[in-house]
Structure formats: C-alpha cells, structure tokens
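Section: Multi-chain targets

For targets with more than one molecule, the full set of components is provided together so that the structure can be written out for the assembly as a whole rather than chain by chain. Components appear in the order listed by the source. The example entry contains two components.
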Amino acid sequence: MSKKLANGYLILVFAVLYAPIVFLIVYSFSQGETMTNYHGFTWRHYQTLFSDARMLAIVANTLLVALLSSLIATLIGTLGALGINRTTKRVTRESLLTLNNVLMVSPDVIIGASFLIFFTMLKIPLGFGSVLMSHIAFEIPIVVLMVLPRLREMSSSMLDAAEDLGATTRQLLTQVIVPFISPGIFAGFFMALTYSLDDFAVTFFVTGNGFSTLSVEIYSRARQGINLEINALSGVMFLFSLLLVGGYYWIQQASQKRKHRKREVAS
Amino acid sequence: MRAVTKRRTWLYFIPYGLWLALFVIAPVALIIYQSFFDLGHHFTLGNYSTYFQSATYLKMTLNSVWYAFLITLFTGLISYPTAYFLHQLKHRQFWLLLVILPTWINILLKAYAFIGIFSQAGLANQFLTFIGIGPQQILFTNASFIFVATYIQIPFMILPIYNSIDDLNPAFVNASRDLGASNWQTFRRVIFPLTLPGVKAGVQAVFIPSLSLFMLTRLIGGNKVITLGTAIEEHFLTTMNWGMGSTIGVILIVAMIIVMTLTGDKKPKGGAPR
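Its structure, encoded as tokens over all components, is:
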C-alpha cells in the first residue's frame, strides 16, 4: 500500500519534471505557429532552424566558447588543485578552498555585474573575449572540486617510488600524477562544459552588443513570444544533452570499474 | 618530504593564483568599491542611505526574500519525499540520473516551455477549462513565477538530500524500530535529524539563486515580481546606475553570507566538498 503510494508520488514528480521538456519537443513537430493546438507532423521548424544562418553562427559561437573555456579552465583548475593539494598548512588550504568556492556560491548576477565592472575598468572590450574569460573564470572552481578528491586518493608512496626511480618533475607529473587523476580531470571538463552551455546570467552581463550565445539568443527571442524554431532548437539541444549525460555516465562507470578491478587485484 | 618537487613546481600554481586574484578577489572588491560612487563618479554614501530610507527598495528586498523563502519551502516539501522514495528503488543510480538530466536542459528553454504551457490558450488553461474552472490569467502572475522557480530548483534540492539519506546508517533506523518507535517517530527523531545536513545544503543551493533569478521574473513574472537580481540587472543594464546596482549587490552578498552561516556545517571538522 505505502509502496504504491511512494511509486505514485515518484511517477508524479517525474511527470512534472519531464512534462515541459516533452511539451517543447512535441510542439517542435507541430505544423502550427503556436504551442497551443497540435496541427500534425512536420520537420519544417527544423528546416527553418538549420537554414537560419544567424542561429547557426550563434550555435558555433556557443560551442566554441564552451570547448575553449572548458579546456583552459580544466588546465588551470587541475594545476590549481595540484597546488592546493600540496599545501601543508591547514589554514592555507582551508582559505584557498574557501576562495575557490566563492564563485561557486555567488549568485550569477553578482558574478556578471562584478565582471562587467572589472572588464570596464580594465577597458577590455565586451564580446567574445570577455565572455570567454568569464566562462573560464566560473568554470575553474568546479574543475578544482572534481580533481581534488582524486589527488587525495593518490598515495604518496607511489610518488616517492617514482622519484626514487629517478623521475624528473615533468615525468612525475605527466606519467604518474595526470594518468592517475584523469577521471577527475575528465569529470571536471564535462562539468565545465555544462556550466558554460547552461550559463545565461553571467554571459548576459558581459556580452555587449555584437556577440551572442544560445542562452542570450533564446532569452531575447522568448521575450518576443512563441516561435516554434526555438522548440526545434530545444529538440536538438535535448539530444545533445542526452549525449553529454551519456558520455559523463560512461566515464564515471569506467572509472568505477577500474576501481573495482584494482580492488580485486589488491585482494 | 618531496622538497625538490616542491621548489620547482610552484610555477605551475601561477595561473590559478592569478585567477584567484583577478576573478575572485578583484571583482568582489570592485563591486563593494563601486557601491560608494554615484552616477557622476563622486565618492558617496548616498547609495546606502537611499537604499535604507526608501520604502520601495526595502519592500522589494523583503518581497524577494519572501519569494525565495516560499520557493525554498515548496522545493523542500516536494524534494524530501522524492529523495526518500528514490533511495528505496532498485536502480536508483539510473533514476538519480533522470533527476539530473533536466538540469542539463538550458534554464531558458524550460522557462520558454512554461510561456507556452501557461499562455491564454495553453495546456494549463485547457486543463482548467476541462475541469470546469475556465481559463485564467496564469502567465505573468506571482504564482506562476513561484511555480516555475520551484520547478527549476527541485533537482538541486533532491540531490543533496538524496546524498545525506545515502550516508545514513540503516542500523540506526533498525535500532529505532527494534526499540519500538513508530514509523513517524523514527522519521522525526532519527531519519530527519540525521539527514538535516542534506536539507541545509539543499536550502543553500536553492535559496540564494532564488534571490537572483531575474530572467524568470522577466519571462514568467512579467515584471510584476522584482527580486534583488532583477533590481541589479535593471540598474546595471537598463538605467546604468552602477553605484546603486552595486549597493544592492552588496546587500545580496550580505544576504548570501547570512544564509551560508545559518545553514553552514557546525561540525568542527567541516565536510570536504565533493
């Protein structure tokens, strides 16, 4: 009885969670112009979407910013995690971690507004550069948080062994440390990627006039009302998110399997 | 220890250190600095005195906090049972992934979906007509804003609560049952107190963003709901009064710190972030 109630509740919650997404995608195939009555199947809105040069350029911009910023943020974040991990004083480590998390907990508007002041004061023009820098900035802390646990798992005897065997600092880093923490680095990269693709508020503040990302474009189009091309876009983006989630899940499973295997070897 | 590596590798730390200085410390300092300047770039305390003397600003702040409170409350009420029941399922990792998946859909697309659902002839009104209430103005009301914000925040509340339930040692629950506690007593005295850290983490994850969801107030609330975030956006991008915008930003930062302290871990060890 209570089990049925629990399942019913879960079904309801999942239905509510997915209803808007399903709704969007269903109407992306509707022949009408609004999201009110379904008018029969068509690919027309997808055709409009794929022949909309402005939209395609924005998609390319968004992907470019996401990939580039995630790569750079992963690099800086991983180095940062290595640095934090090596601090010996507890106070230093705690304060570094606190500073690291400032951008994680700050509301988007605060990040956006303060970056806008920052770029304006340094006379950095608003556009691709400022958006890229902002994305790198708010992605770094999540990379650090993803990499640090792996670093903590790493045994120092392994490093000592490598050093005793004559490994240089560079070899130590590229052949021992990085391979070991690579699952954390990948997880950090994926999280950075989603943060970048998901961001609206920060980009909205620092984007200026000439440059636009998907979120900003959807916002300005949504303010003008319903346009089923956006529905088609959400269909494509949903597919893309599924792929990303799948990729992330796969990486996690793979790293877990490796852990299991290691445990089996150890026992 | 590894003294050699230590000396040689501090160079690697430079980019991260630069990031800390330029993009964490400098912006916070700048927003505080900017809040002391008026439109003519003169140093002034006027922004703060305007803020604290103006009924409009104070009312807006109270409203914003009240809405964030309601959104957090509803999110919590919906999420706790969800996390609890979810944890009893067989393939819970898979279901958990299904909870996370909607957070990967752009927030603006979700807001856009609700513009369609809540519109005059939309799904919600068709349903209301069907059950005999008749069409209502749903979009651009406070209720629709709270509904959509709650919808968007639910996964962020479910996850930490789920994690804390996962950390709960089932032996405590069994012990409580063996000692004759009813289901309700077990929940109230054992399960809930032990999963409170998850609830607190969820409140942190939901309350602060709810103070600053300016795109929802614009798209769904139809400019009737003004949150701290809306006010900041307005001052920065529309009226270009950065000083006042920064002042409200500082208020928002203070609110954030208050929430963090209230919901923070009081354990001496301090949980490692994950």
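Residues 267-274 of chain B have pLDDT under 50 and may be disordered.
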